[in-house]
Amino acid sequence: xxxxxxxxxxxxxxxxxxxxxxxxxxxxxxxxxxxxxxxxxxxxxxxxxxxxxxxxxxxxxxxxxxxxxxxxxxxxxxxxxxxxxxxxxxxxxxxxxxxxxxxxxxxxxxxxxxxxxxxxxxxxxxxxxxxxxxxxxxxxxxxxxxxxxxxxxxxxxxxxxxxxxxxxxxxxxxxxxxxxxxxxxxxxxxxxxxxxxxxxxxxxxxxxxxxxxxxxxxxxxxxxxxxxxxxxxxxxxxxxxxxxxxxxxxxxxxxxxxxxxxxxxxxxxxxxxxxxxxxxxxxxxxxxxxxxxxxxxxxxxxxxxxxxxxxxxxxxxxxxxxxxxxxxxxxxxxxxxxxxxxxxxxxxxxxxxxxxxxxxxxxxxxxxxxxxxxxxxxxxxxxxxxxxxxxxxxxxxxxxxxxxxxxxxxxxxxxxxxxxxxxxxxxxxxxxxxxxxxxxxxxxx
Length: 445
What we know:
The chain is α/β, with parallel strands linked by helices. The chain has 20 helices and 13 strands. It has helices spanning 13-21, 39-53, 68-72, 86-99, 109-133, 146-157, 167-178, 210-214, 217-220, 224-229, 231-237, 246-249, 251-260, 265-279, 287-300, 304-310, 324-337, 383-405, 408-417, 424-437, and strands at 2-6, 31-35, 61-65, 77-80, 138-141, 161-163, 186-193, 196-204, 207-208, 240-241, 341-348, 361-369, 372-375. Strands 3-2-1-4-5-6 form a six-stranded parallel beta sheet, with helices on both faces. Helix 1 crosses helix 17 (324-337), helix 5 runs parallel beside helix 6 (146-157) and helix 18 (383-405) runs antiparallel to helix 19 (408-417). The longest helix is centred in the N-terminal third of the chain and has 25 residues, at 109-133.
């Protein structure tokens, strides 16, 4: 089975390959093709994978190419993990937004809109190529903003593109752990959009254990989200929000923390990964050791500004191991081998949430089998959550309209309608700022 990874020179690819090395069942991946526009990055990651595979019998073969069509042709699965504009683009997204006093985070607010505007045209081109060169392939989208990009690709690939994110999985795992339950045996009632969802229940053996957590202040304040949001706010909500909702519920504090930080997250990762790839130019450098050291630093500093502003302290060691690669592999196995499972995924709404149309991509538990991912029926969202979901989905639709038409007016509208952008004039200045630093936004007229 052939797996193509787009963005194959990306830093997190070894996480995916490591998960593949642990898969020895029938119908497993036998050939991994890495595609990237940067040959030096491809070379660095290929070296890391070679050291990972040392001594592992029947490790999947790895090849690398800068030719997109060659990479896609004949693929059974495609993991799309591209970063249009690189980490320099992300740093610019943050800088332009913060200069206007609004959030510049990668997927939330102004930064997420800017990232989407330059990523959607590229993702759409990939979707069209997949439909032509590998029409039977399943595309698993890692690329952020995951929900928006998945929806853009679904217009050309239908339900054969599925978006993934490890945030809901990590949240469910933390809740189950603090309740003393086995995460593998828990049903997580999670619903929303990517990076905008809520856990409303956690059922073990048919019983909802979330009320027990919400009723116990000590228990509720003992894990990441309790520390981040505060016990009183979680009890007011009656649910546990995805960590990214901290940017909405505590926006002023988050913006202030980012403005006061020595470096934005994008700038930090840009410099950190530049050091990694520079070190990898030394043929004698221990590739795996250098990569793993860099990974540990990256994970430990995740959302550091938010945790500092909330007084949440350092991340729990159990939360430093990532997890999105495990979601991707579980999804791929379920489809390839018809191993039925339940996963929280980004898929087309169909009739799951009545407040959104059938083609809107949402993030909900799905039953997965050989025919793909099927969203399960969920209860309606409460009014406060419905308002946010509908507002952000309207923004995503304006981003898609701008990317499709090249309309600058649609781009301004996307920024202006976002709940975290407080002025149409700010929206206009954001578009001016982003088009001045991103050549890839030159299509906006």
